[in-house]
């Protein structure tokens, strides 16, 4: 595993095994399921005659362009990403893939998992490794204070929990 360096340098292109699987599943679905269905719908719409005023045909062609664009993006992106599929040696520090619990000055706690930019989802607690908070947390230990600039000004949080989960079997 390549550990995420601290601040500075190019932004990492890391992804968890689960994130990579989700992108590969999406690519497979678009290519093997959705694209053939839309292609068939376009064929059927084209058979109806005048394509210039055929809404189903025009919409289908637009959908195909969007699917093809996403397929190209996913194919290229998956080649660029590095899957982080093992735990760091020092699990007392925050690295990519860690679940980190932080506590603010009011005693409110939030738990985030530091993940790749392609898989962040704040509803799940997944925080992009490229976010200011995640970058500030890298390399920190329990009880370390982290200050981060927010739109409302500087905010300080304390690291109150760090945990890692063993990666699921990786393809």
Automatic annotation (TrEMBL):
Residues covered by the Transcription elongation factor GreA/GreB C-terminal domain: 91-164
Domain Transcription elongation factor GreA/GreB N-terminal: 14-83
Superkingdom of the source species: Bacteria
InterPro entries: GreA/GreB_C_sf, TF_GreA/GreB_CS, Tscrpt_elong_fac_GreA/B, Tscrpt_elong_fac_GreA/B_C, Tscrpt_elong_fac_GreA/B_fam, Tscrpt_elong_fac_GreA/B_N, Tscrpt_elong_fac_GreA/B_N_sf, Tscrpt_elong_fac_GreB
Single Gene Ontology MF annotation: RNA polymerase binding
GO BP: DNA-templated transcription elongation; regulation of DNA-templated transcription elongation
Family that this chain belongs to: Belongs to the GreA/GreB family. GreB subfamily.
TM ranges: none
Function noted in UniProt: Necessary for efficient RNA polymerase transcription elongation past template-encoded arresting sites. The arresting sites in DNA have the property of trapping a certain fraction of elongating RNA polymerases that pass through, resulting in locked ternary complexes. Cleavage of the nascent transcript by cleavage factors such as GreA or GreB allows the resumption of elongation from the new 3'terminus. GreB releases sequences of up to 9 nucleotides in length.
Gene name of the encoded protein: greB
Descriptive protein name: Transcription elongation factor GreB
Keywords for this protein: DNA-binding, Elongation factor, Protein biosynthesis, Transcription, Transcription regulation
Pfam families: GreA_GreB, GreA_GreB_N
Organism: Marinobacter flavimaris
